[in-house]
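assembly run, all chains below
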Amino acid sequence: MKASYNELQGLCLKAFIGMGFEEGDAADAADMVAWMQCFGLGGLAALSRGLDFLLEDDPDDLPSVLYQDGDLAVIDGHGQSVLRSSTLSLELGFAKARARGLAVIKVRHCHNRQLIMGYLARLAGRGMNVTAFWRNAQQPLTEQVVGFRANSAVPEIRVYAVQEIPEENEPNNAITIVMANHVDLLPAMRSDYRYDLLAHHDESTLLASRHQSLTEGIEVDETVWARLKHLASRMLVEATDASREGAGASYQDND
Amino acid sequence: MLDVTTHGATPVALRPADEAMTLERLGSLHASRLSFVRSLVRQMARQRWQVSCARFDLDAAGHGVAIYRLQTPQGRYHGVIFSQHLEPEQRSDRVIAQAWDVTFGLVEGDVDEGLLEQMAANVPLQEAGRQHPRLLVLSRANRSLRNFAHFVDALSSGRQPDPGQITRVGYLYRTTAVYGNGKFGIADFVRLQNNADFHRPFSAQMMAVYLLRHFSIQQVEHIACHQAPGDAVPLASELRRYLGIGNSTGLGMAPFLINHPQLVQQWVTCRESALMTALRQAPDENRRQRLLVLTRRAMRHFKQTVTEDTEQGVRNAQTVAALPQVIAWLEEMPLEDDLWQQLTAWSARTLPFETQELIHTLLIELYPERVDYLEDQMGVIERLEMTPDMPLVRLKQLIETRYDWALNEDFKTPEARYWFWYRSVEKEEPRLGVRDQEPGAEKELHLAIAPRVQHTHGVLSEFLEANPRALVVEFLIAHPRHKDIVRRIQTMVDTAYGEIRANLWHRDMKPMHLLRTKLSFFGASRFDPKSDRWVRITLFQGAPLVEELNAESHDLQDFDDWSFPLEPESPGETAMAR
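ok done. output:
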């Protein structure tokens, strides 16, 4: 089925609130999912894959700062989805980059990492050059690099397979973000190591996807949609005769 | 004080927010020339928009499909209206209704048979349907049965309807929801941001309502014609003009105003800027006479306005009683350069809020050449953003200076935390519940900004004591639950008018004021509250007709002069003579 951007964002917001997200986190998470879906990058599918984990996350197990100095911070995401754990870490990096010109943030132990792109877009919109990368542990080992130019909401995305796997290849569920006030950080593949480019989304194809989403509607999976609707209904209050009386017009308005 | 200049003896500035943004003040606003229906009609006239009927397949009872084509210099649109029989027990103004007399949509581009079929299957279902992404607006309306029957009866008997009937209820149809911005699959508003015709907030919705008004006239004439083919007469032009479209609105408007503070900021800033501009002008005799004409017309309009609501009735009566004083004041005072400032200062001392705001509306009306550019500034790209590197102590200072109204409330008293806002399972209808008495407070919508600001202020003050050099982001990492309100505060402190200065939990809070705030910017007239949280209003009453719009030439100033419409005195002579 097709949905509009606003409808998708609105339903996600209500569903996240239904899941127990705080209002601000719910709004950010909804933006992140809708942003990705609008650009044709499978935001709902990413959400769907992580939804069961998300429902089990302990909302009080907040991300903690393991280390920080003027330029660098390492955050423990406590195994939670980036939808719940990443935005303030990114804001911390933003503050450092504003103060020092460049900052590096590493968020360890987080999942649903694809979805972080929507919030990176927001930081870029506030005038920050942003690049993020993360590795997926499946075979072959893949690495995804996302780069936003300052003041552009559209990224350059590359996914490639790493052929030469380092010996100390321990499970890596971290995400690394580099932010720079004045320097472009778009991903450029100039390494001497072998890699196979698996996917490349440039600005023009992403903009075309967005245009299509806004003119023709956004394709959404009905099963996921129904699940989100169910979660959203958790924030609704059962009707009573008293509540109906006080809400508005009468039941019949044959005047 | 935001922008001060001196003209004559008195400095003129934008009104401070603690005056302009109180709930009672906002709940006293009237439509102005910057309201959306007025600016739409001006745009239609300036750009010579043309409306034609592309299809009118109605049976003798007026049921079927009508399609109107709207051609602008930039694009083509179609209003598609489905009219059906409705059982009386189904006719409800509530959002929880399931069927309506008419359902309709405004479509971008052409309507082929495939799209019409899709719309016929979904538009009548409204929220329960899956709507097409080329629909800009989705809406529905129910008949005013008494007016409809009276009109059909009169026209089919060769008579004109009683104008007094329209004065009592100024429409044949009233809408019960007018959806835009992506609702139920229709086009997102972001798609309209580069659309030359409908980039202004709510202009597409107002256009759809305007087309419904035209349909209502054509439909009632069609039914009368079928009832008495030889005897029926068309509706007289004066009565057509006097017909508007009703709207029935409940609490659903309240969350919008709280959740869109940047838009509210924009709307109020435009209105206040227009007022300031008018106040800065040195009046001439022509303008004084024009203000007298407008004041007399408004006085008659309110004298004629009918409402069963006691409180609104009193407010209307107060306005009618006060306006002769205003007229006398205007006639007697010497024509000094700062006369308008003297007028508003005098009215602020002596007249009720509704009359004061009426004077402001009329002053704005005097200077179209100086204020009309503001109609293009009503929109804004909304985004509440954080400033994570702001020192926390600075945020604390900003809260204490810009949100003092929120800190001054004592939320410990039962009266101050009486209501809670929530959404019902019944079509997500927003409702109010009494805290500690009705179920659902744990699912409260966070619409009351003041208690949240006060709570955050307390927590951050404590944090500051232990971390005096902390940044905002460091506070939020320790207390992430405050992210939403901190972001709002940091965004809105740079603005004057985004926050409505009221405790929306308070027992004495009047939701009607919230509804009226938004409706006044739409351009509503004839406020007719049915309770403290449900109101009927009229849109486009007195507005130029489609046939006037389509006419080759018209005087733009005259075309635009339709505020505070009056009951026609001897309608029908033209129509009867045809």
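Chain A has a mean pLDDT of 90.

Chain A has two domains: 1-56+203-237, 62-201.

not gonna interpret more than that til we talk
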